[in-house]
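Hi W., the magnesium ion complex you wanted:
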Amino acid sequence: MSPAKSLRACMAETSLIHIMAAHSPLSAILAEEAGFDGLWASGFELSALYGLADMSLISMTQHLDMLRAIAGRTRLPIVADIDTGYGNAINVIHAISEYERAGASAVVIEDKTFPKVTSLVAGGRQELLRIEEFQGKIKAAVATRQDPDFLVIARTEALIADLGEVEALHRAQAYVDAGADMILIHSKKKDPSEIESFSRAWTGFAPLVIVPNAYPDLKAERVKTLGNIRMMIYGNYGIRAAATAMQETFRRIIADGGVQNVHKDILPVEEIFRIQKMNEIKAAEARFLC
Ligand code: SPV
Ligand code: MG
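Structure:
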């Protein structure tokens, strides 16, 4: 079964699927071992990995290279965050064929102008595309995919741009009319009221995707009672968790004047060997090296 087919099958079986952000093959392996249903090739996480803001600064090639590396180390389906699709509908045609070939099972395209401004920053200059122009990008994505199971997810940033629920619903319906399989509705509010209200008001045919980065108190059990929401993406938790651990460990090493204390609190190197599949290397050595 292709990863795209298994992603659709997983959604058909389960009322809500859980997708973890990955910025590297290592984070993808750990997400798979933890039990997530899929991976989010997050633009925010990869930008942060490069020490850059999530403002269309990393290139499609950089994102594709990491996605390929991730796809080579996990069986989980990958939902690719392609931001605005790197330009207009023509750029989207190119992007979809590249991402599909690289091993993505789905893409999320957002209705902002290029270059984008990261969604959660206070006072961000959020500019949205004309609805017709974004519909053209969705149509281009749908017409380009080779695998009919490959999901085209349209993301509206209407709430992020403070345009209100009526505009968000209107845009979401327009994107479904253009062929989107799902709608990602994003909110920067610190509580889930906007998302809860939108999901109750949504009568469109396509299921919803949410990214509870700004409103962490919305639990999966509650999401299931709202109806319509079928996918939860944990959009920046991988890089934040990694940065938390590195920050704390690095500071302690400086403060302690050595690694004599921290070594007990971090993974032993044998655990990294396990993740690297050193046992397979050992077996290959025994078999092939003379
Ligand atoms: C990402 O993870 O890149 C996202 C989610 O798009 S957010 O950064 O919250 O916009
Ligand atoms: Mg993003």
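Residues 243-289 form one domain.

W.
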